[in-house]
C-alpha cells in the first residue's frame, strides 16, 4: 500500500480522461445523459445516487482509512443518522460515550428514542463498565477517541475484543485518518465530520463513513440514496482538496498543540489541562499506542470558574471565538454555553469552567502569547 500522503493526493484522483485536467472536476450536473433507456454511459444516472466528484472523494476517504467502502455525506450528523438507521431497529440498545459529542447525544436521546431505541452512557475508558452495560439487544458501541470536548481516550482494540455481536463505530473526527486508523484496530465502521480536519479550512460542512463489510455498505448505499443525505459536488471537491494536505497539517497542528498544552499547564490561572500528549493524561499510554501523534485539540479548566472562563474566551485575538474545529485557524470556545449546550442537565454535562481550543497552524509562539495574555487577565 502506498504511503498516506500519496494516497491523499492520488487515490480516486486520476487525471480527467476527457480533458487531462490534473484536478478532479466539479461535476455540477444533477443528471447524466443515457444512451438509450437504461444505457448509462459511465455508470452515473442522477447525482443523489452518485456523482463523479463525490466518487473521487469517497475513494480517497476509503484509501485514507484503509477501508473497502467510503461514503460522503452532507454533514457528520447526516452520516451518523444514516448509519444508525441501518444498524438499529425498535427495541435495540446502543452504548454511547459518557462524554459523547453533544450532537451525537441529541440524535440518540431526542430522535432515536422516539423510535423505541434505548441507550446507556458509559465511560469507554473503563472496559468493565462497558461489559456491564452490554445487553443481548446491544447493536452498537459508539466510540469517540479523543472525545469532544474532554479529550478522553478509549482503547479501540480493547473495545473490539469485548464488543460481541455489537458493531463498534469509531468517530475519528478529532484524530483524523492521519493520526489514527480504527479499522486496523478492530472497529467495524469509522465516522468523520469531514467539516473538521479532513476539510481543514472551515469552508465546508461534510461527513463520511468508511467500512469493510460489503453487506453493510450496500445497506448504507441504499439508505443514503433513500433519505438523500448527500454532499453537493462543490462541497465534495472542497473536502477532497483539503484532504490532500491532511498529513502536513496534522503534523503542524500536533506541534502547536503540544506547545500550547505545555504553556497552559505552566500558567497559574489554569487548573487542569486536558491533552492526551501530556504524560499525566490518564489516556496517554493508550493514545501513544494507537495514535501517530496527539492532535490539535486542547481543553482546559480555568481556576477562577465560569465567568473567568468566559472572559478568557472573549479575551484572545488570534484564537477566534467560534464553534467547530480542525481548520488552519485557531478557535476558542466555551463548550458549556456553545457546542455542548444541548447536554446541559444530562449525564454528559461539561464543567462550566471548561474552555476548548482548536489549535491551528499559525506560529506557535504567537498562539502561546495570545493565550497567555488572555489568561493573565483572570489570574
Ligand atoms: C466529534 C464530532 N462528531 C460529529 C460531529 C458532527 O459533524 P457535523 O457538524 O459535520 O454534522 C461533530 C461536530 O462538531 C464532532 O465534533
Automatic annotation (TrEMBL):
Its EC number is 2.5.1.48. Pfam families: Cys_Met_Meta_PP. The keyword Transport does not apply. Keywords: Pyridoxal phosphate. GO terms for biological process: cysteine biosynthetic process via cystathionine; transsulfuration. One of its GO terms (molecular function) is cystathionine gamma-lyase activity. Gene3D superfamilies: Aspartate Aminotransferase, domain 1 (3.90.1150.10), Type I PLP-dependent aspartate aminotransferase-like (Major domain) (3.40.640.10). InterPro entries: Cys/Met-Metab_PyrdxlP-dep_enz, Cys_met_metab_PP, PyrdxlP-dep_Trfase, PyrdxlP-dep_Trfase_major, PyrdxlP-dep_Trfase_small. CDD domains: CGS_like. It comes from the Bacteria. The modification N6-(pyridoxal phosphate)lysine is found at residue 196. It catalyses: O-succinyl-L-homoserine + L-cysteine = L,L-cystathionine + succinate + H(+). GO terms for cellular component: cytoplasm. Its cofactor is pyridoxal 5'-phosphate. Belongs to the trans-sulfuration enzymes family. This is Cystathionine gamma-synthase.
Amino acid at each position: 500500500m502506498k504511503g498516506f500522503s500519496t494516497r491523499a493526493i492520488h487515490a480516486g484522483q486520476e487525471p480527467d480522461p476527457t480533458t487531462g485536467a490534473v484536478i478532479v472536476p466539479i461535476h455540477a450536473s444533477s443528471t447524466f445523459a443515457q444512451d438509450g433507456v437504461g444505457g448509462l454511459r459511465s455508470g452515473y444516472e442522477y447525482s443523489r445516487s452518485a456523482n463523479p466528484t463525490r466518487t473521487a472523494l469517497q475513494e480517497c476517504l476509503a484509501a485514507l482509512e484503509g477501508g473497502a467502502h467510503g461514503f460522503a455525506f452532507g454533514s457528520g450528523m447526516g452520516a451518523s443518522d444514516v448509519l444508525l438507521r441501518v444498524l438499529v431497529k425498535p427495541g435495540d440498545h446502543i452504548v454511547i460515550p459518557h462524554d459523547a459529542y453533544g450532537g451525537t447525544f441529541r440524535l440518540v436521546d431526542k430522535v432515536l428514542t422516539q423510535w423505541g431505541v434505548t441507550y446507556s452512557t458509559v465511560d469507554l475508558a473503563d472496559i468493565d463498565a462497558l461489559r456491564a452495560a452490554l445487553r443481548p439487544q446491544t447493536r452498537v458501541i459508539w466510540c469517540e477517541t479523543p472525545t469532544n470536548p474532554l479529550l478522553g481516550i478509549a482503547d479501540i482494540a480493547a473495545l473490539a475484543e469485548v464488543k460481541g455481536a455489537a458493531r463498534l463505530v469509531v468517530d475519528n473526527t478529532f484524530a483524523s485518518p492521519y493520526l489514527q486508523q480504527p479499522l486496523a484496530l478492530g472497529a467495524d465502521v469509522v465516522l468523520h465530520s469531514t467539516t473538521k480536519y479532513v476539510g481543514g479550512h472551515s469552508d465546508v460542512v461534510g461527513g463520511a463513513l468508511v467500512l469493510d463489510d460489503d453487506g453493510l455498505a450496500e445497506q448504507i448505499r441504499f439508505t443514503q440514496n433513500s433519505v438523500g443525505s448527500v454532499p453537493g459536488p462543490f462541497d465534495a471537491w472542497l473536502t477532497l482538496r483539503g484532504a490532500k494536505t491532511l498529513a502536513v497539517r496534522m503534523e503542524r497542528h500536533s506541534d502547536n498543540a503540544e506547545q500550547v498544552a505545555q504553556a497552559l499547564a505552566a500558567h497559574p490561572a489554569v487548573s487542569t489541562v486536558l491533552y492526551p500528549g501530556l504524560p499525566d493524561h490518564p489516556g496517554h499510554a493508550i493514545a501513544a499506542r494507537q495514535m501517530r501523534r496527539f492532535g490539535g485539540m486542547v481543553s482546559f479548566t480555568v481556576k477562577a470558574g465560569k465567568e473567568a472562563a468566559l472572559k478568557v474566551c472573549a479575551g484572545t485575538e488570534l484564537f477566534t471565538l467560534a464553534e467547530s474545529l480542525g481548520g488552519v485557524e485557531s478557535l476558542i470556545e466555551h463548550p458549556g454555553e456553545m457546542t455542548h449546550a444541548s447536554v446541559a442537565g444530562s449525564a454528559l454535562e461539561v464543567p462550566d469552567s471548561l474552555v476548548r481550543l482548536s489549535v491551528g497552524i499559525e506560529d506557535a509562539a504567537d498562539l502561546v502569547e495570545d493565550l497567555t495574555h488572555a489568561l493573565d487577565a483572570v489570574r
